[in-house]
Amino acid sequence: MKIFERFLHIDRRIIFVLIFIGVALPLIWTLGFNLEVTENVESVYNLMEELEPGTRILISFDYGPSTKPEIQPMAIALMEQAFTNRIRIIAIALWPMGVQMCNEAFEKVSAEYPNIEYGIDFINLGYKVGGMVTINHMAKDFRSTFPTDGGGNPIDEFPIMKGIKNFDKLGCVISLSAGDPGLKQWVMIAHDTFGKPVGGGTTAVQAPIMLAYVNEQQQLVGLLGGLKGAAEYELLVNKPGFATKGMDAQSVAHLIIIIFILIGNIGYFATRKKDTMKS
Amino acid sequence: MKRQIPMLITFFVGALIIVSEFIPHKPFGNLSTSLGGWFLIISGFAIILGQLSLFKVNIIKISRKAPNWPYFIIALVSFSIMVTCGILWGTQKQPGLIPISDKMLNFFGYKPFDYIFKYMFENLSATMFSLLAFFMASASYRAFRARNAESTLLLVAAVLVMLGRTTIGSTLTCWIPESLGFLHLPNIASFIMKYPNTAGQRAIMICAGFGVIGSSLRIILGIERSYLGGK
Amino acid sequence: MEILMHRIGIWIGVFLTFAIFSFLYKDNPFYKIAEQIFIGISAGYWFIYTIYNILIPNLFVPVTTDFAHNFILLIPAFLGILMLCRLIPSIDWVSRYALAVVVGTTAGLFFKRYLQSDVLNQLTATMLNPFASSNAAQIIGELILIIGTITGIVYFFFSKKHEGAFGTTARVGIYFLMVSFGAAFGYTVMARISLLIGRLNFLLGDWLGILKP
User: Fold this and answer.
1) What ipTM did this prediction achieve?
2) Residue C61 touches chain B, beta carbons under 8 Å
3) From the CA of B101, how many Å to the nearest CA of chain C?
4) Do residues A87 and A48 make contact, with C-beta atoms less than 8 angstroms apart?
5) Measured between CA atoms, how close is C154 to chain B, in angstroms?
6) Which residues of A touch B93 (CB under 8 A)?
7) Structure confidence at residue A87 (pLDDT)
8) A218 CB near a chain C CB, below 8 Å?
9) Contacts from B93-99 at CB under 8 Å and sequence distance 24+?
10) Which residues make beta-bridge pairs with A200?
């Protein structure tokens, strides 16, 4: 019975070390577990695939370095798909760090696509505060919300921005979001008010909540949730990256946590039984 | 005047936004669109207020020699350095007051503002949040007990999702034949997310939505005045 | 030289990473220093981007380059300055005027959008014919969805005591909510572990060079 009591008092530093090792080792020695694509991720992929070459889409970078491991791989995979299919990207950010995240993703992807030109195939319009109110304003008067790009140059100078006064000429809206403001606000305004198809990528924390918007009303066409969603998208665009490599480590870490939960419960039930017998 | 006029402004602005939904034409539509632009500018000042407030609070703590006061100097120095770099040399896309020389750019590889962001802020931000992985593991072990029906349900759902949403879940049940495909862990996880999870989240969303509608009406009608603060 | 600064930058990043990780052992001066640096840099970053991305293009440039068409922007500029008066205790009440515009706009927009997106559309999405599909799993799932949503909403109705048939319905609602929270917990674990994977990728890859690119 003593062993079951010890199950309840494992030093948390042991847990920390095991989690550290459980994540580190699979990164060094990949295990190569199977990855399956889910319906929601495939829906976003199909939304992008069905767009005609030359279509302009809006991607909103609503995240920062704290959630970069989960969402940056999604951004890179989406950009790769867009540039392969000659879809033009208008990038904005509702989080200030989103601007840098967008720049980093573009720098990484554009190295593989030398024909992509800033201002023609891609533009980064920078950051705006205000969340839902700003998205609403953008949908009514895009050019007064973003009079310049992120570098302070008037948007009239850029061919990609020709004719963009609101959301009408956009093929779809994709929001890569880590919280508020983010995907929820885009669904409320871009789809529910102005009828634009919206797809999204979120952190795994937000994914269960946002799944309620994936419904018959197509409030959300599909959803990439967390590192797994990013890995699935990398598989679909056939460019395995950070997310795919990270899935093995994710699996092992989950297994370790489940084992500790089971150990805790075994100890709890065993000692509870003992206490019941005593009393 | 200190409270009545702001409440009147709130009422007027809120009502205008709601009316413009039903009458999008002039003048309501135009006024509503203009308000959106004004909101952007005022919010920008609100962010500046936040940063200046941080500055003020830290200076007060330092002057009063509050506990751990030397650390607050570090915050102020970091803030000042970041702002100075941003104003003087600008950001990646934005020019600053002083054009950055090729020598400086070749030395750092980035503008000073971006260098600090990339090598300091990104690492600090990411590490701060990654600490949660350890605490989450420890807290799960300590607190997650199947004490009653509800907690057992929570535990079972969590374990099935944690296994099904990783590659190990797919590997563990890959041997299951197609006819018993519903027992494949990723399929179980997908079912849980698509149906019972969506049901629960939808119920929360609908009820929270009613709450937001009620609060918004209360604010517009002046019943809720806590946002005014003070006297 | 750029490569040297890149290596120095990596080492700075590693130092700061371990300074934060040292909190796992116990609170210590290194952690406190790293925390304060984070606060300072974060605030500075927001400050600069607010000026460059919002105040300059949306206020200063339109007003200075085309005053005749944009003089109306002096109103939000004035309100913004009133907002800044919150820093001065004797006149902090003037910020309420600016706050009223912000709060009123937000409240008006939230009223419409939450009603449409979070209430009406969600209720409509629940009004399914579960027997329309031939797939047994889908039929069962959609029945679960309908029952779960209704019982979950019943649970949140606190104006009536949860007893009798009403109480039983609310109890069923709790079970669905518990499944939701369990799923949310599973995803939250995934999120947190992902962040740790990112950090270890930096330490093992960018710093030690152990990981293959």
Assistant:
1) 0.91
2) no
3) 14
4) yes
5) 9
6) 99, 103, 124, 126, 149-152
7) 96
8) no
9) B93/A99, B93/A103, B93/A124, B93/A126, B93/A149, B93/A150, B93/A151, B93/A152, B94/A150, B94/A151, B94/A152, B94/C52, B95/A151, B95/A152
10) A175, A223
| Structure confidence at residue A278 as a pLDDT band (50, 70, 90) | low
Inter-chain contacts counted by CB atoms under 8 A, chains B and C: 411
- 3-state SS of chain C is CHHHHHHHHHHHHHHHHHHHHHHHCCCCHHHHHHHHHHHHHHHHHHHHHHHHHHHHHHHHHHHHHCHHHHHHHHHHHHHHHHHHHHHCHHHHHHHHHHHHHHHHHHHHHHHHHHHHHHHHHHHHHHCCCHHHCCCHHHHHHHHHHHHHHHHHHHHCCCCCCCCHHHHHHHHHHHHHHHHHHHHHHHHHHHHHHHHHHHHHHHHHHHHCCCCCC
- Predicted local confidence at residue A279, as pLDDT: 64
Helix then strand then coil, % of chain A, to nearest 5: 55, 15, 30
pLDDT tens per residue, range B173-186: 888 888 888 888 99
Mean pLDDT of A120-135: 94
Q: Taking CB atoms and an 8 Å limit, are C46 and B86 in contact across chains?
A: no
Residue ranges of E strands in B58-171? none
- Decide if A182 touches C, using CB distance below 8 A: no
CB pairs under 8 A between A and C: 146
Which subunits count as partners of chain C given 3+ CB pairs below 8 Å?
A: A, B
Q: Distance from CA of residue A185 to its chain's centroid?
A: 15
pLDDT tens digits along A44-100: 999 999 999 999 999 999 999 999 999 999 999 999 999 999 999 999 999 999 999
Share of chain C above pLDDT 90, in %: 83
Write out pLDDT tens, residues B110-155.
Answer: 899 999 999 999 999 999 999 989 999 999 998 888 889 999 999 9
Domain locations in chain A as residue ranges: 2-30+249-278, 39-240
- Alpha carbon dihedral A56, A207, A239, A61, in 10-degree steps, equals 40
Q: Which fold has domain A39-240?
A: Rossmann fold (3.40.50)
User: Tokens for C12?
Assistant: 């700075």
- Tell me the average pLDDT across C74-100: 93
**Among chain A residues, CA nearest to C124:** A217
